[in-house]
Design brief:
Elements lengths: L2 H15 L1 E3 H8 L3 H13 L3 E4 L2 E4 L1 H7 L10 H5 L3 H13 L6 E4 L3 H4 L1 H4 L6 E4 L2 H10 L3 E3 L4 E3 L4 E3 L12 E6 L3 E3 L2 E4 L2 H11 L2 E7 L11 E4 L4 E7 L4 H9 L3 E5 L10
Parallel strand pairs: 4-5, 4-9, 5-6, 9-12, 12-14, 14-15
Antiparallel strand pairs: 1-3, 2-3, 7-8, 10-11, 11-13
Helix pairs in contact: 2-3
């Protein structure tokens, strides 16, 4: 885990709890005791916390001002929702067709995966998702069982993001995970924000197979954080506007690629 990403996790965790022991930092980030003590020292040096025996204590006013929730480094859910909607719906429909009755699946938060909601109306699945609009729809409009991870709600992206590992999803086991992302490239599935990338990597650990949902616009280079390499992708569903070089890249990586036809008119990606 990169230092910047680790620092963000530790700061968020301290904001929630007010006190962090060295053991808490080790558990949340997977680092050694020496590295955890350095992380605690950086919080103290920044004037956000006081060193106390065994850990750090948040400094009230200074820490509260510094820890006002910052927007995630991705486009908001509402801004992205109507982009390429016909392609996203065709991709989502095909994704749901891959599910069998009684399946346990994971669906990450995103506007393409959200389009699965309509096609899940009559399924009977157990679904873990960090998308609270998808969870709300599934709870009120379907008979699927729904599980949510613990964490902080990010309103713009409509995601639930936990900065630590010891939450309920560590006991979850799924056959499939359906994931959308900011982009797909030779290095793998790409995200633009470290908290989102970490949350998706955690969800991915709970699934046997990964199915990526990516309309043609997702093959443009953007984002900088690799969630997983292409070798982890079992299948990718895209639309017929995907560039030939992208399809060739996927074939070379051994990714099963499913191409669907979007409906007639799609809003162009911003």
């Amino acid at each position: 885990m990169r230092e910047r990403q680790r620092a963000e996790i530790v700061r968020n965790l301290l904001a929630e709890r007010g006190f962090l022991s060295i053991a808490d930092i080790m558990a949340a980030t997977g680092v050694s005791a020496a590295s955890a003590r350095r992380d605690a020292g950086r919080l103290a040096d920044a004037g956000l916390a006081d060193r106390v025996h065994g850990g750090v204590q948040a400094i009230g006013d200074a820490f509260s001002k510094a820890m006002t929730q910052k927007p995630l480094a991705t486009r908001s859910f509402d801004a992205s929702r109507a982009i390429n909607i016909e392609a996203k719906r065709a991709i989502a429909r095909r994704a749901v067709e891959m599910c069998a009755a009684g399946d346990v699946i994971v669906i990450n938060g995103g506007t393409t995966t959200f389009q699965m909601s309509d096609f899940l109306r009559h399924t009977r699945l157990k679904i873990l998702t960090n998308s609270y609009p998808l969870a709300e729809f599934l709870i009120h409009e379907t008979q699927n069982r729904v599980a949510l991870p613990g964490g902080e709600v990010y309103r713009d992206q409509q995601l639930i993001v936990a900065p630590f590992d010891d939450d309920a999803i560590q006991h979850y086991s799924a056959r499939l995970m359906f994931m959308s992302a900011i982009s797909i490239g030779p290095l793998g599935v790409i995200e633009g924000d470290p908290l989102i990338a970490r949350a998706e990597a955690k969800l991915l650990k709970r699934a046997d197979r990964l199915v990526v949902l990516a309309d043609a616009s997702k093959f443009a280079a953007r984002g900088s954080l690799v969630v997983c390499p292409l070798s982890r992708v079992s299948a990718l569903i895209t639309d017929s506007r995907a560039p030939p070089e992208a399809l060739a890249m996927l074939a070379e990586a051994g990714v099963q690629t499913i191409v669907v036809e979007p409906e007639e008119h799609s809003t162009e990606a911003a």
